User: Fold this.
Amino acid sequence: MGVGGSKKEDFEDESGSDVESGPDEVLTVEDEIKRVLRFQNNYYKVLKLNPTSCTPVQIKKAYYKTARLIHPDKCAHPQATDAMGVLTSAHGTLSNTALRAGYDLYAAQVEVDSAGSDSYATWESKGGANMAHLPQWLVRGLAHPVLSPVLVFLMVALMVAAAALFLALFLAYFVVHMVFWFLCCFGCCGHCWPRYGEGARVHARRQERFMRMLQDYEAEAQMAQAKGQPVPDPNVFFANWNIAHPEEEEGNAVPTANAAAAATGSNHYGSMP
Assistant:
């Protein structure tokens, strides 16, 4: 990707006499383009900078110094556009603090000077950019040749410890669960636990009893509406229903309001005259 012609004056202004130069740095345009393309994955070498000490000012000067030589508007070389694209990417990445931290992590994990290594863009597409969103101290630590193995070891140890803690909690829950299950089954035959044994049957009977009470209330309300009478108050109805139908042991059916009304021929709950 190239840079438009409107940047020509900027290159001349920004890369004037304040950019250091020497006899050993003088390269032809062709040599400079070949150098940039050769080290296209190593942004620091593209800009001829020290990775550990270069400042934003030095990055900017190095960019304009090289761009003044290889910019397509100043150079007719067939690979000038490609080299300028690499140079622009290097400048844009290293000028941004967050992007530079991500690139440093990439350079620590990839042989950037190797011809077959992944480019920074490829590394990002494979998920490497997600690590760049880590705290800056962690990114710099992972990029450090000495601290990186230590941090990796600590993170692996932390994950193993977390997995062991989760497994221990699960086993503790399972053991406690089974102990209570045995105590419930052999102690009170399940009356104290609605999930097992007699407790489950009692729970099911209470659910059925509650559903019958709701059905009786709906029938009573429909009957009142059919007669043009007010709908019975739910609180009064439920209180009277529980008095008329006390909770009984298993095997004793709970009569419904329809059956009670059919037997007496009147309202069984006193909610309506």
Remarks:
- Residues 1-24, 256-273 have pLDDT under 50 and may be disordered.
- The two ends are 91 Å apart (CA to CA).
